[in-house]
Structure formats: structure tokens, C-alpha cells
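so the lab meeting is tmrw and i was supposed to have these ready like two days ago... anyway. pasting both below. for each one the top line is the aa sequence and the line under it is the C-alpha cells. i havent really looked at them closely yet so no promises
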Amino acid sequence: GVNEASVHVVLPLVQRFRDAHPLVHVDVRRIPARQIGAEVAQGSLDFGVLTFQPAEPRLSAIVLGHDELVMLVHPSHTLAQAKEVTLAECGRQTVIAHNDPSHVRDRVLRLFEQHHIPANILVSLPSLEGIKRAVALKMGVALLPRRCAESEIARGELVALTMPEIRLRRHVRLVYRKAGERSHASAAFLSLVDDRRTDRSAKNP
């Protein structure tokens, strides 16, 4: 279970799992982040990916990596050469936002309110791909997790600016049930993720 942003983290894991087990069908479902923990705990999902620690005590988590919120702009934007941007500067731009509710959206809006700065969201779209496309068309700027636009940033299609006043650097976690039977496939997937974590720890003592 993933939300639209988390699928970018899951795909490399699915690729490694498919290389090792090519006959296993992997079903990645789009689930609102606030529902993922409960569905994993109930057994409706084998795994979920979250950027916050779920409240369910029956769950364990493995940190897959980190992510941060950035402001995405077109390479020709006047701020594109800056390394970072302030909330006030962001508030002077046309902001393109996702229209689905989320923890990140709520937190960002609260920060704008606390600083008495209008968020200036003038375009709302139903998908991350649509948002990135709108930024590429110079319709405005967007506040998104960096991992959602790594390919576009690498190709020079978008530029990511950090926002020191937000500092939403978050752990990306794979959550799973602590106890209970697992299918052979889910046990193999968990083992693969755990081995990956061990390899990373060995390389970064």
C-alpha cells in the first residue's frame, strides 16, 4: 500500500524482488497514507510505505531512506539559480498544489498561517504528474517531496530549491505486522528489504 508519492520509493524494491522471483505477482495499491497503517495491521495489506510513524502498536517499520520537501520551479524561473527560497518568496509565486488532503499539505498550510503569509494556491490538480507538468509549462511553482521529481531534476527539466523555514526532512518507512503468518512471497520481500538495510549499514558504519 502506497500513496502517489511513495510509489517512487517502492519501484526499486519491486524491481529487485522481481529479479529474484519473476513469477510472483506484485500488486502495489494506491491507498491514502492515513489508512495504510490500519490496513497493514488488519492484514488487508502485507506492507505499506509511510513518511510518519504509524500509531498501531502491532506494526514494525524499516527506514528505507529520507526525503525532504522542496519547491520545484522551471529552469527559466527567476529563482532557479538560488539554492534555497523563503516562505515569503514562495508566497509571491503562483503555487500549484495537490487537491488531495495529506499530512504534508496540512503542515505546510499551518506554517504559512503561522508566518501570516498567504499560501497563494491558485491551481489545484489531482496528480503529481499533472503538477510537475504544470510547473514544466511555467504555470507556477510546486511544493513536493524531492523523490517525486528526481528524474525531472536529473534531466534538467525542473529545479529543486530547499526551504529552510519548512525543513520537512522525513524518514520513508516500510511498515509491516510484527506477528502473524506471512506468505512465502511476503516473507521473501521482507527479507530482501532487510538485507538491503544491512548492506547500507555496512557501507555507512
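ok protien two:
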Amino acid sequence: MKIIFFGDSATDAKRIRCSTESGRIPEEYSIEPNTYGSGYVFLTAAQLFSEKPQYYQILNRGIGGDRLPQLYARIQLDVWNEKPDVLNIWVGGNDLPRENNPNFTDLKRWGRLYRIMIEETLERLPDTKIMICEPFWPRESTRHLVKPYAEEAKKIAEEFNLPYVMLQERLLKAVEVYGPENIFYDGIHPNLVASKIIADEWIRVFKEQVIKE
């Protein structure tokens, strides 16, 4: 089973690019590539491989800084050409209308483009199962900005009858218990604690709604 994780920096997690995908391999990285990154994709892959080591193929196609328009622009190369059995999409943090984000994606366009991306993927890959992860933004001062995007993502999942991985409630509970500095290593990106929470929730939804174990 081939699974593609498609998203921004939370998915990327400083991974090494593959030669068959969009994006360049950063020169500062080692020759031996860690294509899974160091975040939730790595932990998810480790768990799935430990259960069925020869069954799963995991591809990380996250690129840091990407907004939804960038995902749509590269979906042919990074997703459709790969013909995955499962596609996981997690995007939204870079689309928010923050003061320091002049290239944000307004909500109406974001929802319209997200639907187009889902529709075209299902047209080309009708047997591919798509999962949507809830957009999340950790900084308290601008956290309210993500709520409309999360609601829109959930609405899209319901319209297309897709599994929806809810993350915000679980991550915020961890912030309350441990403090944000122990969940997000730079105030934005998940550290190993947050990545484990994300991976656990993703695997739960995957098993209950996709492979239905």
C-alpha cells in the first residue's frame, strides 16, 4: 500500500527531497537522505512498518512554506504520477491572513481550490482514498485565524465523504498540560511530542476509517 503525505513544513519536517519529485535537495543535507523527515510522517511510517514491514510504502511530499496554491501546482508530479492508494493532505497554516503574510489565501478561494484539487484527484485516481487533516495554528495571538479554515476543511471532508483527522483539540490539550515550549520547538512547528500526538491520531483514523481494522 502506497501512502503519500502531502503538505507544508509540518509534513516536510526537514526531510530530503527525492529526485522524482518537485523541489531541490538542499546542499547542507547529507548524501544519505532521510526522506521521511523528523516529524509525524517519520513516526507514522515507523509504526506502520513495525506492523507490516513489507506492506507499506510511505512517501513524504511536504514542502516547507507551501500554501494550498503551491500544493495544487505540484500535485501532478508529486501525487498523481505516483498513483497512491492513500493520499493524506494537511495544509492551511501558511494560507492564513496574518499581518506578516501578504501572500495569504483568502478563505473563499482556499475552499474553492481545495475542492477542485479533491475533484481532480478523484477523477484521475478514483481508487485512491483521501484523508484530510485539520488545519492548525499554535500561536495564541493568531490562533483564531485558523478556525474558519478548519471548519471549511471539515465541510469539504463531509461533502466528499472523506476521513477527517481532528488535531486542534488534542494539540491544545497538550499545550495546556506541558506548555507550548514543550510542544512546538520554535513556537510553530511540532516537536517530537506533538508529532507523536499527530501520528497517533492519524493512525487511529486510518485504521478505523480507511483500512477498517
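from a quick look at the 2nd one: The longest strand covers residues 2-7. The chain has seven helices and five strands. will dig more after coffe
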